[in-house]
Structures are given as C-alpha cells and as structure tokens.
Fold each of these.
Amino acid sequence: MVRDPRATSSADGNSVTRREVLIAGSTVAALTGASGRALAADRGVPLARPNRDYTPVVVPNGAKLPWKIAGGAKVFHMVAEEVDHEMAPGLKVRCWGYNGRVHGPVIEAVEGDRVRIYVTNRLPAPTTVHWHGVLLPNGMDGVGGLTQKAIAPGETFKYEFTLRQSGTCMYHSHHDEMTQMALGLTGLFVIHPRRPKTRADRDFAIMLHEWRIDPGARRPNPNEMTEFNMLTMNARAFPGTAPLVVRTGQRVRIRIGNLSAMDHHPIHLHGYQFRITETDAGPLPESAQWPETTVLVPVGSTRTVEFVADAPGDWALHCHMTHHVMNQMGHGVPNLIGVKPGQLDERVRKVLPGYMTMGQTGMADMGDMGMPVPPNSIPMLGGKGKHDTITMGGMFTILKVRDGLKGYGDPGWYENPAGTLATTAAADDLRRDGVDPGKAPVIEDDAG
Ligand SMILES: [Cu+2]
C-alpha cells in the first residue's frame, strides 16, 4: 500500500474517499490502517476487502487489473495496445490487448462499487470498450457510433458507473468488432456480491477464445470465419495452459467466458459433477441450478460452475469439441485411416527425401514424433503427461486436486493410491474372470 503524499486526512481519519490510497490488487489485504468505511462518499458503500469480504479470483496464465481508490471510486486504467504474446511454448503472436496482456487483465470489483475506468488508446485504429453484461447508463455502454464517439489513437476516455449487480461479466472492443476481438481485445469483469451466500475457496476465471494463426505467421488472421486453428483458455493453448490447483475439500468456482468469433464451447470436467450457478446475468437461484459434467458456454456468454473438490487427482478440464483440442491443424489433409502404404514411402523418398506417410492409425503419434515444425509454430497435439504423451492441445488444462496442500504452485503429477490405476491386466485376473483376450464375447442382437 502506498499513500499518495497529496492525500488529505479526513475528520474521522478512516475514510478512504478522502485519502487517496493506492492499492495494487491483492495487497489491499494489507490495508489495516484505513478501514475504508465509505468507498463512495455519495452512497456510503463500504469498501469490501479481498480475502476478508470475498475470495479474489485466480486467473491461470493471466492477471488482474490493479486499482486505486480516488474521488470516491475504484479507479482503473486500461491501455489498449499491440502486445507480443506467447500462446504456447514455440508460438509467439502479435495481438492487440490491454496493459501488455492478452486477453486484458481481469477487472475485479464488488457490487455497489463506483468504478471509474480510464481507457487510453495506443492502437493504430480507433477503439471503444463495451462492458458486456454490466447494467449501466446508456452513454457508458461503449458501442462505437451508437453510444459514444470512438476513442481515437492517442486519446483517453473515461467511463464511470456504479455496479448494481454481481456476476461474471466481460469487456471487449465494440468498434470494428470482427477485427479487434479476433486480435484479442477482450477480458473478464468479475463483480463479487456485496453479501455472498456462499464463498468459494478457489475462484478461477477463464476466458475462451479462438484464433486463426497459420504456422510461421505472427499475426492472428481476423478475416477467418470457420477454420480456427488455435483454441485457447486465457489465451494459452495446451501444453501452455497452467493447471488449476486446489486442496481436497475446497469449494471451487470456475467462471468461464466466451468471446470467440464463431464457436460455442462445451467445457467438460472429469471426476466431478458441478452445478451451473451463474450466467452473465448473475447468480441462478438454487432451484434453477442443475448438475452437469459439461457446461456449454455460448459465444458472448459466461457460465459459472461450482463443486466441492472431494476427489484428489489430475482431472482433465477441456472443450469437448475434438477439433478444439488440436493446435494449428490443417483440415485439408486426406483421410488415411486404414491405408497401407506398402512401398510408397520408399518410392516417394527418391524424389522427396525423408518422406513418411502418416495418419494411417490416427493423429496420436504426432505428439511423440518430435517432428520438425515450421519456425514459430507448434505440433498439432501433445503435452508431457505422467504416464505418456497427453494427446491433446488447444482448449485443455488440468484440475489438480491434492490433500493437504500448503501452496498453490504446480504440485506435479498425482500419485495414484495402490489398486486405483488402470494397468495391464494380470494373467491371474483374466483366468479368474474367464476373459480370453483372443476371443471377444459373442453378442446377440437385443431381442427387446
Ligand atoms: Cu470448443
């Protein structure tokens, strides 16, 4: 906490509205001297403190936008600019983002907060910021041409409104949307309830996105409409995604936003049943929540799920569209499943040294081959797993649940308790159970 030397003391010495207190994200927890009894002088809304009044969100591979209290509001400063970003080890791209990040840092606030958000445009084109799902005065809605003049390069605009809701909202450019969102100008806007009914111990925020980045290219192609070849969580593709680390028994919340251009994403979690507890319009009443293992997150929407992490392990969390867990895959490849190349390889190598027919049994080997890929591109799939190569890419990450964790760094791979790991069947077991690997059971048509 750094106190602005220009700040003046208030009569009660406690009001942060009359002191200008600079607070950087979670360090606000260290705010002990000032009780912050009045955040908005005109409304008398107290300052909710992270960790005491709400659990701050965790942004895997991402960041949160710092804020300070000034003039009775939480003040944020966003800078729209070009950003060099690593999407996965080996793939660097030049995107448009905010404050050096792609996507923009998560804005975190509390119901009742007055927020003042400055937006500086350092892009080569005009832009705006729309606060997606946030209830606000029309002139603060950020739609270029409709509700405001676009922010010209070099200009700084001020948005200001009071948060009248809680939930997981988003923000994104609303000027030349197709180009600017495709280049990454999006982010999450989390508004915690003033009086939460349930508190999560771990509260994760993940933004989904899809991109077209041709192997070797640095610039995502915003003109793409169907053939997206990079699918990301917080702008990272597996094996570049950080795991979600949780201690056994903790209540977990995962907020998922989707500002992809064209695709909805059914996000599936292994090992658990969760409840869908929120949409972009805030909390769902308990009677309207339902259990699922896959949550469909439509374009332009957020969904929040919650569960108690009572099953330790390394659990996959991924989009269930199978082409969304591949990296930079060209879909024009011929179908070679079942093809027997015979002498083909030998003959082709005479004119094309090193040629090898691939894909006769599928794509899984691609991750293992260590095949050279063009500069600045990554293999279609494959991350290192405990037991083997994980034959996934793209929108894939791992929920790591462990007993007695002391911190939230990557705890490594799960040690399966004896008798709980699928392995080669023992001969004794096969014999006891009458299973002959050489003979499939005879199956008759179901007579009904
Ligand atoms: Cu998907």
Note: The chain has one domain: 2-319.
Amino acid sequence: MIKKYKKIISLVAFSSVMLVSSGCKKTFPPLPDKVEGASLADYNRGCNDIDSPYYDANAAGNSDCKYAYVTSYEITYYPDEDGNTTWDFGFGNTTNADLILNVTVLSSAIKVMQGAERSNQDSNTPAFWNEAREIRLENKVYKWNLDDYDSASPNDPISNGTFNPVEEINNGQNNGTITTVAGGSQLVLHYIIK
Ligand SMILES: [Ca+2]
Ligand SMILES: [Ca+2]
C-alpha cells in the first residue's frame, strides 16, 4: 500500500515539474552535461556584443559575432573653391587642394587613421587611402576632418563630419560602403564583414 502511494506521489511531482517547465520560455539550451555530444561552444551561440552589426540582445553568447573592418577610405569629391578663391595660390601649376584626411573616435579622440597627403587633388576625382590594418569599426561616433595641407601657413579646413559606422550598417548601408556627406565633401568607408 505504502509503495503504491509513493508511486502516485512521484507521478504527481513529475507532472508538476513538466507543467512548470513547459510554461516557461526557454532562452538558454540545457546544461552541457545533460546533452550527449554538446560542447561549451554550443552554449555561447549568437552575438551579444553591441560593436557587431550581428548584435542580438537575446543571444546566449558571442560565438557568432562578425565585425566590420575598413579596407579603404575615399573622398569622392570636395568643394572646388575655398569660398571664392582657389585652395592654393598656384605655385608651379596647381590651385587644387592637397588633401589630408583624419578619422578619430569622437568620445576618446583615438586616431583611427591619418591619411598621407594627396597632393594637388582634383575636386571631382575620387582620392583613396588604403587601410592595410583592417581597422575594426565600433558602435561609436566617429569624426572625420578633411584639410588642405599648406606648407607655409596653417592648413585650410575643408570639411568635417560625424557618423556611427555600426548604426549606418544597421540602417541599411550594409553592402560594403558607408557614405557620409558634410560641408560639400563626400567620405566613403569601404569595409568587409568577417
Ligand atoms: Ca591652401
Ligand atoms: Ca595646399
């Protein structure tokens, strides 16, 4: 008789556990030792790192994160005049600007890139700076400054702008380029995701 009661009690207890567990939304997979052949990596799936365009607030871990890396910077065009005058006096044969491009992380003033001078750059011909280091883009505000290098006087500022690369990718600039236009100039970041 006692044995029979014991059996009933365990059956009731088991059913209650089943009811409770089926009523809860399962977010994480069961523990590794409960699933044959499961490894720790299986419990770190998804991407909960906000610097990744793959960010998912409900992800269990980071093993599926991929990131955007800059491969080159491009100034597609810039204003052909400094107000109503040419950028340079025309020593030799040029009045075009000598482009210097700087990109920093705004909050930390960390220098992302400092592009070498593109001398006598035509205002409507794209100028490129390749990025061999493949700089990883983060979910932060970046600032770019475009200047005309002048050897005998302080540089002439041309344009500057800000953007958040990860936000831009999430807002649709997800085909390998991030374009921003400011002060009459266009900056294009070329990137890869990996
Ligand atoms: Ca100048
Ligand atoms: Ca100059």
Note: The two ends are 66 Å apart (CA to CA).
